[in-house]
Design goal:
By secondary structure, the protein is an all-alpha fold.
């Protein structure tokens, strides 16, 4: 377990205050906030988080294209999805997620919402309020949505190994040890209170149970800050970073995620020592990279 510098808290708060809602245009969450209805938001958030890999400009471009294809009404589209609707996403490609993959995920979301009323209710059905984090609850939710996927004309839920890679992308699970970055991102958006960034829709799930959405930027910067000494961005590292951040905010440790990821996405925190950029960063005195830049 990594023990961060006790002086880190005020610096983290300063960075969190610096990168607020005015930076939403640099994040897929900004595309989710185009919608005002919570049912549209939950469907859009699941899709946006699931596609949140690769360059951010490409992600945003493909999400805007997807909203057009769904008539800017994602909840209504999945709720009334039928086999003919697959043509809506014909030709859609985001990295290895292709149109057939996306059509299967959209149909599955419609089946889950038909059975439970919303993705929120589907999650709450498997939610454990007394668990220290959402690992088990997330695993049950993944099983629910993945179990609604169908291949071809089959009415049975396919085994995970039968799913195409583009479908499996949406359904990582903590039990397999991966970081589950995209699903933890979805939960952050849904669970944290509406603060101009996150959406506060999955109440009464507690923000204290969230686990850090661990992308390459957050993993790297967390090592600089002493939040983790691990090298592999997996579930253990995500949990270790979250536990370290609880020292500074035990009720809402993941609130720092948006700001820390901005440092990487906007190239404010370089991969290699850059004295000019490091001096401009408020974390410089508590960052191993920043201290080496100051000494250089």
């Amino acid at each position: 377990m990594s023990t961060p510098d006790a002086a880190l808290g005020p610096f983290l708060n300063e960075v969190a205050a610096t990168y607020g809602p005015e930076y939403l245009h640099t994040d897929p969450l900004g595309e989710v906030r185009r919608f005002t209805d919570p049912h549209d938001r939950e469907v859009a958030a699941f899709l946006a988080a699931g596609l949140a890999f690769g360059r951010v400009d490409g992600i945003l471009l493909h999400l805007r294209d997807l909203w057009e294809r769904l008539d800017h009404a994602p909840a209504a589209c999945v709720d009334h999805w039928n086999t003919r609707d697959a043509r809506r996403v014909r030709g859609f490609v985001h990295r290895w997620v292709r149109d057939d993959d996306l059509a299967r995920v959209l149909a599955a979301l419609g089946r889950v919402r038909s059975q439970h009323g919303s993705l929120r209710e589907a999650f709450l059905q498997g939610y454990s309020p007394d668990d220290p984090d959402l690992a088990a609850s997330l695993g049950r939710f993944v099983d629910t949505v993945r179990g609604a996927v169908r291949l071809g004309r089959s009415r049975r839920a396919p085994a995970e190994t039968e799913l195409p890679r583009g479908v499996r992308t949406f359904f990582a699970a903590p039990a397999r040890g991966g970081a589950c970055k995209r699903l933890n991102l979805f939960l952050r958006w849904m669970v944290r209170p509406d603060d101009g960034l996150d959406l506060g829709w999955f109440h009464p799930v507690r923000p204290a149970q969230l686990v850090m959405p661990l992308d390459t930027h957050v993993a790297r910067i967390s090592r600089y800050l002493g939040l983790s000494a691990r090298r592999t961005p997996d579930w253990r590292m995500a949990r270790e970073i979250t536990d370290a951040l609880r020292r500074f905010d035990p009720v809402d440790p993941v609130r720092y995620d948006f700001a820390l990821s901005r440092l990487g996405i906007l190239d404010a925190c370089p991969r290699k020592r850059d004295a000019h950029k490091c001096r401009a960063c408020s974390l410089v005195t508590v960052c191993t990279l920043g201290r080496s830049s100051r000494a250089a």
